[in-house]
TrEMBL record:
One of its GO terms (biological process) is protein transport. It holds the Pfam family zf-Tim10_DDP. Its main location: mitochondrion. This is Mitochondrial import inner membrane translocase subunit. Mitochondrial intermembrane chaperone that participates in the import and insertion of some multi-pass transmembrane proteins into the mitochondrial inner membrane. Also required for the transfer of beta-barrel precursors from the TOM complex to the sorting and assembly machinery (SAM complex) of the outer membrane. Acts as a chaperone-like protein that protects the hydrophobic precursors from aggregation and guide them through the mitochondrial intermembrane space. Keywords: Chaperone, Disulfide bond, Membrane, Metal-binding, Mitochondrion, Mitochondrion inner membrane, Protein transport, Translocation, Transport, Zinc.
Amino acid sequence: MFGLGRAKPTSAEKIAAIENELKVVAEMHSRMIKVCTSKCIDKAYREGELNKGEGVCLDRCSAKFFEAHQTISEQLQKEGAARGFGGPSM
């Protein structure tokens, strides 16, 4: 986040960057829960526990969601670094 040649970030800037990162992760988690739940779990609950198919579906859906998020994050960091916005924050 803070590239070479820039002033060292202040504590307030570090806190703001961490808060922003936590907000992004929380939003991603909420989207993942909504998407994967609607895809994998039937609206008519028949059992108190997840069945094997639902569990496998949720595992695969969440893994794909995280993989896509990671790929997009890496690409955005590369583009940001190419434009001079610095690298990863930590």
